Every structure is written in C-alpha cells, then in structure tokens.
Amino acid sequence: MRWWQCRLAAAVALLAAVLALGAAGPRSPAPLRFAPGGRFKLALFADLHYGENAWTDWGPAQDDASDRVMAAVLDAENPDFVVYLGDLVTANNVPVANASDLQNRITSQEVELMTAELDRACGLSRSSVGPRELWPGVSNYVLQVLSHEKPHDPALLMYFLDSGGGSYPEVVSCAQVTWFHSQSRFLNPDGRIPELVFWHVPSTAYVKVAPKATSEVRKPCVGSLNEEDVAPQVAEWGMMDALAHRPSVKAIFVGHNHGLDWCCPYEKLWLCFARHTGHGGYGDWPRGARIVEVAEKKHFSVNSWIRMENGSTHSHVTLSSARFS
C-alpha cells in the first residue's frame, strides 16, 4: 500500500488496531462497543521508532525491547483498543525496503499476544487513509464506539488526525478543520456524545499550558515526566479554537515529545501527552504507555494513567466526569 509507505518516512501516520476479543471475521469486524460493565479502555503506544540501525546488533535488540514494553502493558491492562500515536518507524536510518516489514511487525504484536488463535489475516486494524481531499495528509478519520446499554447508539467518538511532519509542514490544516466541523456536526449535532481527539505533534496550545521544562509537574497539571520544552506544530490554523468551543471534546492526546507525559487543562478540555513507549528514538527515560478508560453508564467519566514497563502505574487523572439523569 503505497500511501503509508510514503508517510512512514514522515513518521506521522496515526494507526489504530482493535484488540477486542470475539471480533467478527476478517472482512466484517464487529463494531467497537463498550464492554458489559460499561467501560472502554485504550492503550496509547507512542514513538516506537522501529528500525533504527537494523544492520547493527543494537538496532534489532532495541526493537525487541519495544516489543516487551507493549507486551507488558497489554498483559497488565487488557485494553479494548490500541492507538499507535505516531512515529512508528524511524525516519532517519531505515532502508525504505524494510519499512513494510517493520509495519507488519508492529501491528502483529497485539494479535499474537492477545488473540494468538486468530489468523494474522483477520484484519483487526481500524485505521483508514481518510478523505482524498485531505491528501497528502492521511489517517484522518473518526471511529464510533457503540453503547453497551443502547446497542445501536454511539457512546463515544474518536477522531484521528494527521499533524504532518517530514517533508510536509507539522500542522493541522484548514482543510482538516473544515472536515472536523463536517464530521462532528453530522455525527454529533447536539454534542451529547463525548469525543476524544488523537494526533502526533502537539499544537501550540500545549506550549501555553506547559509547566516550565525540568520543573515539577504541579496541579492542575498531572504527570511525572517534564524534561523538555514542548516541540509544537509550526502554526495553528483553527483546530484548537474549534475543539475548545465544543464541550463534547474532552481531551486531546499527542506524542512526539519523548520527555513529557503530563496532562494539563486548557479551556474546557485537557491536553495530554502519551508516554514514550518504544526503545527507539531519543531519551533514556523509563518506557510505558498512557491508558485511557471511558465509562458510560449514568456517571460518565474519562480517566487516564500511565502504565510503566515494570508494571507500576502513576499520574492518575480524571479528564471528564458528569452524571446523566
């Protein structure tokens, strides 16, 4: 598939792979749905940077270590869904011919670990190229998660956006803003369905709320890692204004900065970093993943925490909570 091979060089593709057990056949996967307990849990794997120096001993060993991080998180959390939050493959020192093999390796980890009895051709990924009018940006799409209590009604919307990179500007474009308005008005005209948003490169709004680099993360922000300045998109072309004025949007999740894992409030939503998951890429901070758990029921909530490779958790935060009548 040529489209993502080109974008892997830019290292900005957002891919999502469903982990729900009992999914339907490879050509008709079951709809995403809240579990019987009314919860839907996501694991965010950010900045894997597979394929660095594949011709050396340390390069493949590094990729093996990344495999172990994901395995540890999956074993501990048993999520319903995984989001690959960008920079899956290194853009700097991987032969182009190796890119597709590395992509297959990444997306097969969860299938092997969680549903080993299924054939690898089951096609559990929910990623999409996205509208042609948004090219060269790809992976712009929205996923619905259906309610357990009302099986035909969506109880959560998840938007995935390409934030550029590589040979393209690191920005969410005006065309993407228009697309978001169109999708959100069609799917959620009254704003009653909670919405989460995912892209890779943080917006300039992250700079506005960021704790001073290397300082302790203090309330209202929550996090444990604050070792660098935010490296934001090159411009803000309206997406943050659109999201900030939409109460149904509860949080935005990004990667890109390996030395940050905090969440901070912004307007009426939260801006969150994931946690550097892969052993590729810069920085030697301990690896982990951000977990996001959404509860429907009468007391709706979005809670998040960091699960580390060693099994520990920290930085628990409630991103949204509301009681429905």
Automatic annotation (TrEMBL):
In terms of Pfam families, this protein maps to: Metallophos
Q: Which InterPro entries match?
A: Calcineurin-like_PHP, Metallo-depent_PP-like, PAP14/16/28/29
GO CC, any one term: cytoplasm
N-terminal signal peptide: none
For this protein, what is any one GO molecular function term? hydrolase activity, acting on ester bonds
Tell me which domain of life the UniProt entry assigns to the organism this sequence originates from. Answer: Eukaryota
Q: Where is the Calcineurin-like phosphoesterase domain?
A: 41-258
**Would you tell me the protein name for this molecule?**
Putative inactive purple acid phosphatase 16
